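BUG: 3D viewer hangs when loading the predicted structure for this chain

Environment: internal workstation, default settings.
Expected: structure renders.
Actual: progress bar stalls at 90%.

Input used:
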Amino acid sequence: MPTETQPSFSPRHRWKIGFDVLVRTALVLAIVVMVNYLGAFFSHRFYLSSQTRVELSSRTLSVLHSLTNRVAVTLYYDKSEELYPMIVALLNEYRAANPKISVKSVDYVRDAGDAQKIKEQYKLSSATDKNLVIFDCDGRVKIANGDELSQYGPDGVTKDKKIEFRPVAFMGEMLFTSMLLALENPKPLKAYFLQGHGEPSLSDSADLGYLKFGAILGENYIATAPLQLFGNSVIPDDCNLLIIAGPQTEFSDLELQKIDQYLAQGGRLFVLFNYFSVKHPTGLEPILARWGVNVSSDIVQDPKNTTSGQDVITYNFSRHPVVNPLSQLALQLILPRLISSVNWQNPPADAPKVDELAFSGATSTLAGEPGDPPRSYPLMAAVEQKPVAGVANTRGTTRIIVVGDSFFLGNHNIEGGANRDFVGYAANWLLDRSSLLEGIGPRPVTEFRLTMTRAQQKNVRWLLLGALPGGVLVFGWLVWLVRRK
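Structure tokens produced before the viewer hung:
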């Protein structure tokens, strides 16, 4: 007769196994929940490709952290384009820094339906409307063309003797951050660039021109316009910043009166002198002296911190918001003039605060003054008017930056040291935008330039011509000794 099969486990054993499985499953789920909870607060990202490794600058992070409105970013781009992975990686970093930024990709080549919706939404009717990055903040739209995101350099010559170009610099962060500034602040600040006294032009692309200077102001969402104060012309009411760079001829009394009145109303002034006006005073010097800044006619030389004998490389900065981010960097000035604070014996109660910002090295001397002992000299100064009780200036609180050189911000020299960064810091401090005074701002990498003093060049020359070849010879001699035995 068939025997009755016995159960593999008793009911008690089955309940025990079921309870054990239930408890283990609950523990695994609890661990998963805890890991996700901790990961939300203590995250660490790693990158599988150098193309996706993006580190945002401190300035960009400051802009992102101050962003309060939602921004929808649409990447209307051909995914097969060379720059597409870099753009996606950069926008992902923006989104990670501020969740109010949303990112959507539409490939206009492969996603015809979605592409048509984007064209209708943003009125893209031209045949050239492709490879775009669209920023939309509550109906305010800024569009970056893909051609603006990179700089090109020569890559060689083809067989038919045509020069080929390739991307040599990615400028996405610089452009995207300036667009976020524009969306967050619908009305840009206005800087007027004084002309008519030998100053360089913002449209001049020559070595001493100020084309790059104007571009940096644009990156910081500062609109620029030329200004002349001849005749009945006045400093406009919308002038947030007046820039006077390298004047070579004297101002008329009427012009000086307008500038003096502008400062008394709480205006902001960025003035740069150079050695051309040493023997031809501009008339600005007495006005600045009344604000506590002495513009000397002496040229500072620093034999230990120079590359050509005409420049001064300064690593010495005071504690001030304009130069605090430059503490580990250097500025390279060309034949700078001595700029110092006025030593008032009995300063008035409403005297402005004057800070000397940058200094030459301890072995510096003044040109034409061989008897003076070497010492450090100030090269630039910042002025801020303390608020006066009961007085309301129409333009705000007066701020001034005076620098003893204008050539160091020309198109060629602006790439030396941290000169480019100084422009942004100076302008943003003058305009009282403290959130943009942190870290190194977005910059295009156009070239790598190594600035060395004469002493450093000498050491490198001995290293390359003596130490390295000598080391190889000594090593070879030791090998010969070992093998001879």
